[in-house]
Each structure stands twice: as structure tokens, then as C-alpha cells.
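Quick one, C-alpha cells below. Sequence please?
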């Protein structure tokens, strides 16, 4: 009811980013299940999200066999961890718990917070999400000439690009 005045008294509700991302991911995975009988190439897919984004996304992705990388907040961090998974540079990341490991004792890892079910077979990014309503669908690095993460606010548009080498 608190939002009805925005929609001319209609019974609509503006979803929060966390709810929307979980719904978008569910819809994308459900469409694959309907089309192929299961999530296609689930063993190659992964999701990247900032550590403040809902764990509902993590649970949904793990339910369907997708890997997860949690980054620190910011599109640069999302882009960096996605790039590292694409490049197979995951050794330091897979040991992390809340950004720390034997290698990263005094300071946290600069981009990654923690990972679940990540290995070198993960090559297709299903989605990169941030609680601030930023998102991208980066796909497979080998078929992506340039991937762009974008974030829009009422006063500005920002972006971070990952260019294929």
C-alpha cells in the first residue's frame, strides 16, 4: 500500500534488487529446464555476485549445480572475479572464507570474498549481480568480444568493461 500512490492507486509492487535477481535467475534456469529437461551445461556455468547480494541467489544456483563466486562490492570486483574464473586463475579464490585464507591472512583478497563449487571447468557466466540493481550476463569468454557490466542510478550511468584479449 505504501507504493500504490506511485502507480495511480493500482495494486503493484516495486521489487527490491535481491528479490528481482533471484526471480530473474530462477526464470532463466527454469526456461532451460523446460527446453532441455535440465540446466544445460550446468557443470560449466557459474554466477558472480557481490557479498551483500542475497544468499537466495547462492542457494538457487547451487540447487542447479552452478558454481558461485562472491566478490566484494563494486563492478570492478565483479569483473575481476569473472575474468579470473574465465582465465582459470582460481587457486587463491577457492580457499577463501570471507576474503581470507592462508595466503590472505593480514589483508583480505582484493576482489574475491568466497567461492562455492568453482573449478577450472567453469567457463560460462550465467549472470553477475549486485544488490544495487547492477547486472550483466557475461556468458562464455571465448565467444564474448567485450562484456560490459553496467549500473544506472537516477543521476548517472556507470560501467566497467572487460575486454577480450
Amino acid at each position: 500500500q505504501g507504493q500504490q500512490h506511485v502507480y495511480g492507486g493500482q495494486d503493484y509492487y516495486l521489487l527490491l534488487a535481491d528479490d528481482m535477481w533471484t526471480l530473474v535467475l530462477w526464470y532463466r534456469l527454469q526456461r532451460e529446464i523446460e527446453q532441455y529437461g535440465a540446466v544445460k551445461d550446468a557443470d560449466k556455468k557459474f554466477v558472480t555476485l557481490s557479498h551483500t547480494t542475497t544468499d537466495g541467489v547462492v542457494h538457487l544456483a547451487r540447487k542447479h549445480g552452478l558454481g558461485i563466486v562472491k566478490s566484494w562490492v563494486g563492478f570492478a570486483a565483479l569483473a575481476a572475479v569473472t575474468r579470473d574464473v574465465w582465465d582459470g586463475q582460481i587457486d587463491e579464490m577457492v580457499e577463501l572464507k570471507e576474503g581470507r585464507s592462508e595466503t590472505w591472512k593480514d589483508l583480505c583478497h582484493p576482489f574475491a570474498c568466497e567461492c562455492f563449487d568453482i573449478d577450472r571447468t567453469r567457463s560460462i557466466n550465467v549472470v553477475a549481480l549486485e544488490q544495487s540493481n547492477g547486472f550483466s550476463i557475461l556468458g562464455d569468454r571465448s565467444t564474448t568480444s567485450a562484456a560490459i557490466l553496467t549500473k544506472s542510478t537516477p543521476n548517472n550511468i556507470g560501467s566497467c568493461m572487460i575486454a577480450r584479449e
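The CA atoms of residues 22 and 59 lie 10 Å apart. The longest strand covers residues 124-130.
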